[in-house]
Amino acid sequence: MSTFPLLTTTAVVPAVGAIATAATPAAKRTAAKWLALLFSLATLVLAAVVLARFDPGGGRYQLTESHSWIADFGVRYELGVDGIGAVLIALTALLVPFVIGAGWHDAEPAEGAQETGRRWRPTQGFFALILAVEAMVVISFAATDVFLFYLFFEAMLIPMYFLIGGFGDRAHAAGEDEGAKQRSYAAVKFLLYNLAGGLLMLAALIGLYVVSADQLGEGTFSLQQLTQARADGELTMATNTERLLFLGFFVAFAIKAPLWPLHTWLPNAMGEATAPVAVLITAVVDKVGTFAMLRFCLGLFPGASEWATPVVLVLALVSILYGALLAVGQRDIKRLIAYASISHFGFIILGVFAMTSQGQGGATLYMVFHGISTAALMLVAGFLISRRGSRLIADYGGVQKVAPVLAGTFLVGGLATLSLPGLAPFVSEFLVLVGTFSRYPAAGIVATAGIILAALYVLLLYQRTMTGPLVKAEVKAIPDLKVRELAVVAPLIALLIVLGVYPKPLTSVVNPAVEHSLSDVQKNDPRPDHPVAEHGGASTDKTDHRGGEHE
Amino acid sequence: MSAVAITSMHAPSGAVPNLWTLSAEKLEAPSIEYGKLSPVLIVLGVAALGVLLEAFLPRKARYTAQVFVSALGLVAAFAAVIALAAGGAAGTKAQLVGVGALAVDGPTLFMQGVILLTGVVAVLVFAERKLEPAAHGSRVDSFAAQPASVPGGEGEKEATKAGWTTTEVFPLLLFAIGGMLLFPAANDLLLLFIALEVFSLPLYLLCALARRRRLLSQEAAVKYFLLGAFSSAFLLFGIALLYGYAGTVTYSGIARVVSGADATTDPVLAQTTGNDALLLIGGALVLMGLLFKVGAVPFHMWTPDVYQGAPTPVTGFMAAATKVAAFGALLRLLYVVLPGLAWDWRPVLWGVAIVTMVAGAIVAITQTDIKRLLAYSSIAHAGFLLAGVVALSEEGVSSVLFYLGAYSFVTLGAFAVVTLVRDAGGEATHLSKWAGLGRRSPLLAAVFALFLLAFAGIPLTSGFSGKFAVFKAAAESGAGALVVVGVASSAIAAFFYLRVIVLMFFSEPKADGPSVAVPSVLTSTAIAVGVAVTVVLGVAPQYFLDLAGSAGVFVR
């Protein structure tokens, strides 16, 4: 069994599902949906197997596969997961069935006369694209070859682009035509931002190849070879080269993540896309950006990462506060959640660059928990919006009187977003703050302000939409959650509670990987009673700081 | 590159052969290596045969015979190329043939192979007869019923009524291909010029043969001809100056004089030989002539008009094959004749490459006609290719070869798709008419989107592999700045490719929009080949990279 290509299979299953779904005849829409759901569930099973077979005490990269691919470019098909990758693959596989379930009716062809061709199959296309994104994201999380990662990091934009631009909310506040226009604007903005970042990364990638070809005799993109060569002193980059390459990579990831001031595509994209697609963007695809910072920026360019840390921390803090402040001021539910996500991505990046085990472990957990909590909040918001046909907060009020279950799930999702103790995101946010504080106390204090703002935007949102008198006629007619919708939301909420109380299974998988990535940058956790220890043996106190045990 | 053994060396080194001073007994027939020249000979022979068919066959039978003979001839020539390559002519047995006028080596064979394959695909697109509405019972293609008749005049009406077609396009195409096969092989400035004319003249003609919008087509042909004649004049003038400098027109001879290994023995030329002014000006003029064919800024003015006006099958062929041939000639000139001058031409080409990439990408943004848009995109791609050319390394050559192979099939496919989108007035090339195409015919729009993504260089398409290869070669030769500019202009270029995709998929179809004609198996095959090559070169390019990599050495 050890030679069975488990990771490849995990990526191939949704890819096959995408093709199968797309190939379903136009009339068999329901069959296509079930097919997509089936494939996504199969992927979930495979991802669970990946997580189960991953041995936290084992080697750094496990379940590895390695085949030569494009020898001319030094590219190999190399897969392997560390704890972080395994957990994020699991998150991806976990969320996609919910995305599919929530988007069950989002891509029905419009009724009435249509002069479209008989091959036009929007429903099939919608679900096929979601599965295609899933396949590409899985490969990105598993790739240990930088070039392989880049290929899918970029290629993933195309299906995302069609998902954002091709499928929007049925009833758009600004009218059908204007809605289509804004949607296509959002899609193009999304693509251009990310493509520009990707092309910068391409330049850096070529630079990396040249450097490695120069010093190792043969160009390579293999992460393991590169870090090994670096540790052995065979690969040394000039300071400036390293910094330029780091910037090329980092900007690409910062756009994807997104980090202020490169974030402006996200509110557009999340606002215009349907709620399930918005979940796909923020909970799944954007995680590739933060994940890549951890794996590639720190792993390949430790010196430059240290050099950039002060700036990155400041940008992350700005993201936290700016995102939260703008979320407070939003009038549009989906854009509010988008800005809240920007704030949360600030926390993740803060944790990554704090360079402490709590910080990075917390950041990894944050990626997972933010994915689940945003999915819960956004999907319920999507259900709400589809009932009323409006994204504006002002169009609601008193919903909890007519749809108590909807309001209740919305509240739990919201409370998770503001990191209420007892729910999962609290654990990760706390760890990030502790990890940041232990090395950069000032940054930790400033970031804490973000929590207060989070409470403000979530509770204001809840208050304005769900509480208050029931005056509007349209709101009075809002039905409560249906069985399908409840089936989508309930497991997510259950997960939030379970992981909030008992996050140990995840932390035990994540922490060894975090130790490895800290050893990449040659950092130790600062000792509590000493001034910050800048340099020391990489592996002296491995057992002392298991991030998860702090809570 | 010095590892190549030159097995035979027929070029007279030193004395310039002069007809008047040679006595009759010294005139002997040169030995010609027919085997090595077989691809060119087959194509030109079949072209001549095509002319005969045109003259002697009844009108009814011409079409079938021409298509059959042309395709067969091209395939046979391709087989000859494969046989030569398999026989080692691309590697150890590379040699100069035809009294030193031609080089049969790796780059030559690779480019001949690519040109022949694009030629085969072009024949398929040329032969398509299901798109135009049948005129009076006979199916017609996209070429004028009777090109010599005045547009809109009586003659045209009669010819259309009679259902005539211009089957001459096939021999013309073959002549052009024959010239293109010679162009990258030319190892002698005179042959370079002759090959240029051999492939240009039929192209000028082909450009004028559109069935619809004939005035536009003729205007394009005249523009192309005039500007082409201009550039030919530059080229010829440059050749004269280089001859004055070196006393010889063979590449190796000039290279030896440039490197100072040889001095001419001709007393007439003793005064001018080695005069650097002649070399620099002559070299620059020849370079200009080639850059014109490549379509590099600032010699690109003809491209949009000609691409737009020419019949779309011709545009597709021209965009693909001319670029291959011209880059082949450019590479050989720079790598064989002028490497000693690299310090002089590299900065210039740096500049040209940067301007070409940026201008091509920026100007393309404002285009509203799909054919003009693709024309500007081809200009931008010429810039990317130039980035590989200035690498001045074996890897640079290989990367350019690979890029050319990848690019030509994407181009052919894209233009083949353009021929299918039609309304009452023929092809609907205005972009506004493409709105909502994705809803009417998702398959066609998806295929076109794939080609556009390949143009944009999105990973997992051939465009990305090519771009990466070229930029890698450029970066390794220290042209990091060029790579950065290239990447930036790729980002700009991506914008207008995306605009078309947005238009096709996210816009509502118009009520009076164009319909997509159902093509015959011919065009379908051409498009399928384009798709297949685009995907294969994107996902598994290694074999072809190896192929291009083994073909990166010029024989001297």
Number of extended strands of chain A: 2
Strand order of the largest sheet of chain A: 1-2
Query: Helix and strand string of chain B, N-terminal first?
Result: HHEEHHHHHHHHHHHHEEHHHHEHH
Total domains of chain A? 1
Portion in strands of chain B:
under 5%
pLDDT < 50 runs, ≥5 residues of chain A: 530-551
Q: Based on helices, strands and strand pairing, what is the structural class of chain B?
A: mainly alpha
Count of alpha and pi helical runs of chain A: 21
Number of helices of chain B: 20
Helix vs. strand class of chain A: mainly alpha
Instruction: Please give the number of β-strands of chain B.
Output: 5
Q: How much of the polypeptide of chain A forms β-strand, as a percent range?
A: under 5%
Q: What kind of sheet is the major sheet of chain B?
A: 3 strands, antiparallel
Task: From the structure above, extract its key features.
heterodimer, A: 551 residues, mainly alpha, 2 strands, 70% helix, globular, disordered C terminus, B: 556 residues, three-stranded antiparallel sheet, two-stranded antiparallel ribbon, 20 helices, 5 strands, disordered N terminus
Give the gist of this structure:
The complex is a heterodimer of chains A (551) and B (556). Chain A is built from 21 helices and two strands.
Describe the structure.
The complex is a heterodimer of chains A (551) and B (556). Chain A has 551 residues and is mainly alpha-helical. Chain A has one domain. Chain A is 70% helix and 3% strand. Chain A contains 21 helices and two strands. Chain A has a two-stranded antiparallel ribbon. In chain A, a hairpin with a 4-residue loop joins strand 1 and strand 2 (75-81). Chain A starts with 5 loop residues before the first helix and ends in a 31-residue tail after the last helix. In chain A, 61% of the residues are buried. Chain B has one domain. Chain B has helices at 34-56, 59-86, 106-126, 154-161, 169-182, 189-207, 214-246, 251-258, 276-294, 302-309, 312-337, 342-365, 370-389, 394-420, 437-440, 442-456, 462-476, 480-506, 521-539, 542-550, and strands at 95-97, 102-104, 421-423, 426-427, 515-516. A three-stranded antiparallel β-sheet of chain B has the order 4-3-5. In chain B, strands 1-2 form a two-stranded antiparallel sheet. Chain B has 556 residues and is mainly α. The model of chain B is unreliable at 1-14 (pLDDT under 50). Chain B is built from 20 helices and five strands. Classes of the chains: A mainly alpha (551), B mainly alpha (556). Chain A binds chain B through residues 69-73, 115-117, 119-121, 150-152, 154-155, 157-158, 161-162, 165-166, 177, 180, 183-184, 187-188, 191-192, 195-196, 199-200, 202-203, 206-207, 209-210, 213, and chain B through 438-443, 453, 458-460, 464-465, 468-469, 471-472, 475-476, 480, 483-484, 487-488, 490-491, 494-495, 498-499, 502, 505-509, 511, 540-542, 545-546, 549.
